[in-house]
Amino acid sequence: MSIKTFFGIGAARTDVSTEIIAGFSSFLAMSYIIVVNPSILSQAGMPFAGVLTATIIVCFFSSLLMGLYANNPILVAPGMGLNAFFTYTVVIGMKVPWETALGAVFWSGIIFLILSVFKIRTYIVKAIPRPLRYAVSAGIGLFITLIGFANAKFLVANPATIISISPLNPAIITFLAGFLFTAVLVVRKVKGAILMGIVFTTFLAFPIGRWYGIGPGVSHTLVNWKGVFAAPDFSLLFKLDLVHSLKWSMLPIIFAFVFTDMFDSLSTFVGLAEASGMLDENGEPRNVKRSLLTDAFSTTLSGLVGSSPGTAYIESAVGIEAGGRTGLTAVVGALLFLPFLFLAPLLSVIPAIATAPSLVLVGVFMISPVTKIKWLQLDDAIPAFLAMVLIPFTYSITQGIVWGFLSWTAIKLLTGKRSEINTSIVIIDLFVILALLLKN
Fold first, then answer.
1. Distances (CA, A) of 282 to 43, 219, 254
2. Can you name the residues that pair with 163 across neighbouring β-strands?
3. Of the candidates 77, 197, 230, 325, which lies 20 to 30 Å from 431 by C-alpha distance?
4. In angstroms, rounded to a whole number, what is the distance separating the alpha carbons of residues 300 and 317?
5. CA–CA separation, 61 and 83 (whole Å)
6. Helix or strand or coil: residue 218?
């Protein structure tokens, strides 16, 4: 069987060369995750090289499966927001060992598989109020932006005002210059803008600690050369703790992984399908069941190899815009990840300040759904607002979800709109109340 026949390239009204170019385009648009994911998860105490290897494994096998099994031009990688939740909320905030957190990722993947096989996942997502879906997405964007500012030390703790902006110093100026450079590339729609911004900011950061210090009394270097090539680090494979991750206290964490990835992936599939016309005869995203199963596989695999959950990437829209319509686009993108397995020393020179601009800009991309919320309809707006702002304010996706849903139910019930409270909402409410009780 030829490549054209296997992927249905003729029926999709495309050609092999267009699919290959589309694969390169999608890869460039989301390749920043190769650096950003290890940068975030290493703060949880996990080895940078090990997380890099895990990230590449998840990107390669998940995107390959999306291409060969689901035949969709969508790349899959560890999700932004989910990696921040894993590190800053679960491991650092809740003091959960990263091995146990990986176990929670694995079990959430198993739940994904069950929900996807029986189509329950699609039903649940459709039953969730759209304002809350939009608000959670926007809240995660604000959460990621806050982390970017904190990593750059642009925002610092202040006992008088809780947080404040750091005084200008070489590191802050470097961050601002990197942010401006990256933002201009993004606005001009340059392919690979985020990755180019990371490289540019890394070069700007090289003199810090060599020619001048970061600030008063601080003079260590931010960029430290460690070589180019090294064998892949498989030290995180199968390091997950499957037993302790099933404790009652871990259920809210598993729920948060399930909920967030569920919305993220299905929203991505629907958005990309509607924008590109990749719909089946029923108006649903093409091969949506297989795509959801692939996404579930990615999350399960992530727990096994040592990464936060994998999910479909909206940046795949870049490749689709370039003409990608079949799984060949995803296969090409998957293959492009493999060489980075051997570049851990080179990639580890990139400091947190260099990835900070990309985190801030990812927040910009993710906050756009707030425009779909009817802000003048207050019974929708108040719960949505709580869900959105509590995610960054509490440094927890879970808290945003919990109070968003509880306030939605309470306000609808007390304002005579009981018909807008469906069975799925009630079940989720019971679960989040249980989560609050377990936490206390």
1. 45, 62, 33
2. 157
3. 77
4. 25
5. 19
6. strand
Query: What pTM value is reported for the model?
Result: 0.82
Q: Calculate the CA 349 to chain-centre distance.
A: 23
Quote the tokens at residue 102: 């990986």
Beta-carbon contacts of 130 under 8 Å, excluding residues fewer than 6 positions away, are 372
Rounded distance between C-alpha atoms, residue 357 and residue 109, angstroms: 30
Report the candidate in 110, 125, 147 with the shortest Cα–Cα distance to residue 293: 110
d(Cα 291, Cα 297) in Å, to the nearest integer?
Answer: 10
- List the one residue out of 427, 440, 439, 338 whose CA is nearest residue 115: 427
Torsion-angle region of residue 81: left (phi > 0), alpha (psi -120 to 50) or beta? left
Task: Give the chain's count of helices (H) and strands (E).
Answer: 19, 4
Widest pairwise Cα distance in the chain: 69
- Tell me how far apart the alpha carbons of residues 272 and 389 are, in angstroms, rounded to a whole number: 27
How many CA atoms lie less than 13 Å away from 320 in the CB half-sphere? 19
Q: 258: closest CA among 304, 205, 311?
A: 311
| Encoded tokens for 157 | 């703790």
d(CA 77, CA 21): 19
Burial bucket for residue 299 (CB in 10 Å: 0-12, 13-18, 19+): buried
* 80 DSSP 8-state letter: T
Distance CA 57, CA 54 (A): 5
- How far apart (Å, rounded) are the C-alpha atoms in residues 434 and 15? 53
User: φ and ψ at 240, to 5 degrees?
Assistant: -70, 150
- For residue 1, give the 3-state DSSP assignment: coil
Rounded Cα distance between 395 and 286, Å, is: 36
The continuous run of DSSP H or E covering 402 comes out as: helix 397-414
Q: Are 68 and 331 in contact (CB under 8 A)?
A: yes
